[in-house]
Amino acid sequence: MLKLPQKGFTLLELIISITLIGIVMLIVFGAMRLGYRSIEKAERTVDFLERVRTSLNILEAQMQSQIPLTYEEDGERKIYFVGQKESVQFSTNYSIWSGQRGYVKVIYNVEQDAYGRRALYATENTISLEDTRKTMLLDGIESVSFKYFFKDPLKVEGEWRDEWTETSFLPEMVSLNILDSSRKLSLNMLVRIKNKTSQSTAVPKPSPTPKGRLPRQGGSVRS
What we know:
The chain is α+β, with helices and mostly antiparallel strands. It is about 25% helix and about 30% strand. It contains 1 helix and 11 strands; from the N terminus they run αβββββββββββ. The strands form 3 sheets. The chain has a 5-stranded antiparallel β-sheet, covered by helices on one side. A hairpin with a 5-residue loop joins β5 and β6. The protein is elongated and about 105 Å long.
């Protein structure tokens, strides 16, 4: 009888095929993982930018609703505004929690975490009441700072200052600077102060701007 030649794979061919299949699968899974991580990173970036937008809208709304109340100290009437490089304190009739319902004292201050990153907090309480509420607006930022625009009436040009030491009038503008190289973010927001005329309403002397961490109440502001 005539025997037909047997066809099949040799052991070497089988090993090569399995190896090639494994390499292709690794490439496919690697590409899928890279795509998933890219989507996840993009979602985190979008979420972060939305939080930045929401936080800036809140800060701008409160500053635009600022009421320059005054208090008396050592026989001198001073305006209720304290500006430093990493904090700003003022009075407004717009509350994050209750909207436009009376005067509140607002403090925006920057705190440092254990990793050296910065977080922006908003703290407010109704003037003359001990009802402090605090929320974190932004966290994990490389740098957050404020600047204040001073314009001498006798001079043509003004200047930006890291601190506001004037007690009789408000700055014309306040600048919030956010820098985060890891997210390729460099943002500078200018808020023009509308109401710079001091009110005659007497309020208690403002407490010093906090240097450390305040008792946290409320939650993170997210969209």
